[in-house]
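ARCHIVE CARD
Drawer: 12
Card no.: 0347
Subject: one protein chain, sequence and derived structure
Cross-reference: see card 0346
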Amino acid sequence: MPKRKRKTEMEDATAIVLGFANLVDVLFLKYTGKTMQDLLKESAQRPRELPQGEKTVVVEPGLPLADAYAVLGLKPDAPLEDVKKHYRNLAFAFHSDRSGMNDEAMKLLNRAFETITKRRGQ
């Protein structure tokens, strides 16, 4: 049977653990602006439910016009016919049913085409 630790050894170990916990609290407060206790209280609260009938709307950040043309591989003064032609060719190449690539490329392509056509009033 192992010997019981002396009281001072237990107190020393407790002081080390409490010192570490205090250090973690100080660093957490420094980097997040909240204490660990505040975070635990927030996580224990039930999330607020949306009232019935309301929907959340995800707004994607707008794509700058110059970037939209760059995605299509065109200059900003390209005619609308070229924009449509490049869009169709790239959509054919990057569509997930055809190439098996991820949908992110197609989403970016669609956003670029929408940005250009909206700005041109089409």
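Annotation on reverse: The chain has two domains: 7-44, 65-119. The mean pLDDT is 76.
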